[in-house]
Amino acid sequence: MVLLARDGGDARDLYFQLYARASAQIALRRHAHAAASHDAGDLLADYYTDVAHRELPSVRKEPGLAIESVRHAINLLARERPPARALAEEKIVTALRRHLFREQRITTAAIFVEPLGDLWSPAHGPQASLRFQSGDATSLLLHWMNDRHEGRAAREPLLLLGTFGVGKSTFLTAFAHSLLTLSPWITPLLVPLRDLVGVADESLRAELERYLRDEYHVDFSQPPTGNSLRYVVLCDGFDELNLYYSRRDVQDWVSGAFGVLRSLAQRPDVAVVVSSRPILFMEQRRKGLAQPILTLSEFDEQRIDLWCANYRRARLHLSAEFNYGFLRERQLDEVARTPIVLYMLALLYEDGWLESKRYTKTDVFRTFVDWTEAGGYGGEHKHRLPANYREILQDIAWFLFRSGEERLEVSTLVEHLRAKYGTVTREQIGIGTNLLVAHMLQPAGGASGEETLIEFSHQSLREYLVAERLWRLVEPQRHGAPWSYEAWDDAAGATFTRAEIAFLDEMIQATPEQEALHLYERLGHLDQIAANVSAYAALSRRDGRLLELWDVAASTVLAYILRIRIFRHLLGSIPKRRLPSPPTDLSLRTLLDFTSALAQHGSPVRRLLTDNLNGLRLAPGAVMSNVEMPDAEMRDVVFKDADFKHAILPGIVLQSSTFTSCDFSHASIAAQFFFRNRFVSCDFTRAEIHIENEIELGTTALNTFSGCNFTKALFTGLVLRDSTFNDCTWDGATVDAEDPILQNATLDAAARRFFRSQKVPLRSAPSRRMKPPLPR
Prior knowledge:
By secondary structure, the chain is α/β, with parallel strands linked by helices. It is built from 26 helices and 25 strands. Strands 11, 13, 15, 17, 18, 20, 22, 23 and 25 form a nine-stranded parallel β-sheet that branches. It has a seven-stranded mixed β-sheet with strand order 2-1-7-3-6-5-4, with helices on both faces. The longest helix has 23 residues, at 549-571.
């Protein structure tokens, strides 16, 4: 009765209201689900979740009025639509019965394994601080929701982050099912954001409210009727919103669109969870954790083994041999850490396609496409595929990629394929919807609710095929053919995702030495922006089209990124005397300047460049003075004698990198991740340095400064763990940071004197294994 008493009235009056409402809910349930049978607790909980008080008649204290009230309530509610909770349950159960590849009989529920997660949550209240927890992801999310319900957490959306294929969508669905079981008071509302077609950030709120009204009969355009938490809106796939493919500045629309979701979370009756790949929220993390973040971890050995056991149980005939040990013996354990890859490996194993060799993720996806070409999908219902089916799949992925959409009308795709290949293939197999039925593709509901759209069953399949399509495009150049601007024009203006670049990188690392040398040399003609503008201008005049400078910039950036990755591959595979010259610092500076000059149109292209400088090697003496590289990512880079004077590097990510005799004097460095780096004999005179993050995150750790000059340097942020300073100069240096800390630092006498003079706490704590920065 405590929950009911919030509305006022004595116990006798509330009893009659309870009786009337419970009876009305029974009638409502029978109206919506004639055969449904639920226990009384569930009925009452559902009723209070779904029916506003104003829809019920007033009930007096006299017992004689109770029956009439029941009849009146039944008449009122029998004509109502099904309540949100019933609709949510139906959607969630349907989602758990789905399978990734439509021809297989294994449901999501049958093989789901609870992932581990890390939760960073800002505490709410006067003594706000960052709290860190690790454990089962469901428990962590429930813990946050309880804090939100009890007012211990701010009304901010929770970000659910994870790399591609780690199972964010499946986890949200399983969590929603758990919440239905555990909490009778809170209803989970799943919203695949990719279903909000054609939105801009100014219309996102309206589209989201329309979706929730149409799908769940909940109207969030109306003010809340109380202060209790009643709904959790699970927004899946923020990175799949079509806003992501616009030419707007990425951070501009991330802030705008996320701000819309944040405004929904301000309601007292709603909690909001938003899933995404981490890359979109790096800027927000650098500026501080305004919202809680739950990061899903890839599977460890125990969870891989459990997943394999679930799969064996679902596929009764499967040998017990398929387990973690089997994968480890074939050197597959390192790539088999996400559900999407495990699923592929299981299917390949069943058909005997797994070899005893080391696999990369690219190897797994490539083999999976090979298996598809051979008709491995479909079990007994196999049908003929054309010999060039791989090329057709690549073109479907490329067409989606270039259109900026995750899904397209079936008729549009078929028309595109017929325009390229004709109405039949050379094997006389007709081109139509028959080519869109393999397990990589699936129908999707359009605006009318009918399945008129087609999409890849997982985003990573499309991204792999896009990378493979580009790799096929440069095949002639890999074998020594001259460069062709006409061929490369097919990729003009394409802004690749981080996952697509990662696939290309693995393809490069597996490329034979001579092929890599050929491609590196041919791409050398393409990483110079001035020459490309001239060449593309000639093509535009010939074809009668407008020259788009950002398209030229995107092509040039892509060539430069590929050369970075190829050079790193060649470093480890051929003698030093045969090495070609590394990518030039001039090309890098020119690209940074050119993309900056393009303003808003150049921002996505510039971000593509600064996000993919990993592995960069420049010749000694590189000139990077006065360069501006906000949020640049540099993992495994090596610089020697480089000039970074007056460079502006806000939000830089530095990991596992080495800088020797580099000049950072007068530079401004603000690192959001600073992990396992080595600086030898570098000059930081009058530099402004900001290395700061919550100490528990461990993302500013394991760095070494040896023989460096910090004369008159200013530390505006200083939070470091397990880092070393020795043989450094500290004349006139100062620390003007809020809450600086050095934990478990290794300091020589001079460094110890300096930090103590600046009142920097030197703390010791039990050592623990440092985790690298979160995946982006």
